[in-house]
């Protein structure tokens, strides 16, 4: 029977037991074997009503107008609801106790951004703000040169995430998504910058 460890015992085993550390330590977390690392302690969402102008922007992004005549015949009071243009936006804030700025934060932003888009799609809203409530935000000494190199690079246009898939005219549940359902369009990147993991 496995004994439940106290917090102190767990931390001590991370320091003294290599196999235990490989299984439950930070390396295990950064390789994606845990969904929510211990430095994260939850997220929350909130919604707001979209203005008519914002709903029209959504319409233009999603459907657009092919000519001026079509635009003149457009009645927002009819068309926005008929075509399912959302009436609300949803935002997500995550709470993080400790943040490795160079190695961890970009992954955190991408992960919670995708989560926000998945939740928004599930509830029929527009993804709005992504907010990180970050505690001990730090840049390790052995990451400073890498951070300077990254800051000095030219920026690229942001990619877009493909529309969520539909199967036989229906939108799948958030629980049925697989990694292959998500594709970044027009993604560009510089060569990777290697940095040691600081434990």
Keywords:
single chain, 199 residues, alpha+beta, 3-stranded mixed sheet, two-stranded antiparallel ribbon, 8 helices, elongated
Short synopsis of the structure:
By secondary structure, the chain is of the alpha+beta class. The protein contains 8 helices and 5 strands; from the N terminus they run αααβαααβαβαββ. 6% of the residues are buried.
Plain-language structure description:
Mean pLDDT is 81; it is low at 28-35. The protein is α+β, with helices and mostly antiparallel strands and 199 residues long. The strands form 2 sheets. It has a 3-stranded mixed β-sheet with strand order 1-2-3, covered by helices on one side. The protein has a two-stranded antiparallel ribbon with strand order 4-5. The chain has helices spanning 7-16, 18-24, 26-33, 52-62, 68-72, 76-82, 105-123, 144-151; strands at 40-49, 88-100, 126-138, 160-161, 184-185. 38% of the residues lie in helices and 20% in strands. Helix 7 (105-123) links the parallel strand 2 (88-100) and strand 3 (126-138). Helix 1 crosses helix 2.
């Amino acid at each position: 029977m496995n004994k439940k460890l106290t917090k102190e015992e767990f931390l001590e085993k991370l320091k003294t037991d290599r196999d235990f550390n490989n299984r439950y330590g930070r390396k295990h977390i950064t390789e994606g074997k845990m969904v929510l690392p211990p430095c994260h302690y939850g997220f929350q969402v909130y919604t707001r009503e979209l203005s008519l102008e914002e709903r029209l922007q959504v319409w233009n992004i999603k459907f657009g107008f092919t000519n001026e005549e079509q635009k003149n015949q457009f009645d927002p009071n009819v068309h926005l609801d008929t075509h399912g243009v959302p009436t609300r936006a949803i935002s997500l804030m995550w709470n993080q106790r400790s943040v490795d700025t160079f190695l961890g934060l970009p992954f955190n932003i991408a992960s919670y951004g995708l989560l926000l888009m998945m939740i928004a799609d599930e509830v029929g809203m527009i993804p709005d703000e992504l907010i990180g409530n970050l505690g001990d935000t730090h840049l390790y000494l052995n990451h400073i040169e890498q951070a300077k190199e990254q800051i000095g690079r030219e920026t690229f246009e942001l990619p877009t995430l493909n529309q969520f898939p539909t199967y036989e005219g229906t939108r799948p549940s958030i629980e049925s998504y697989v990694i292959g359902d998500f594709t970044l369009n027009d993604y560009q990147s510089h060569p990777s910058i290697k940095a040691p993991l600081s434990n």
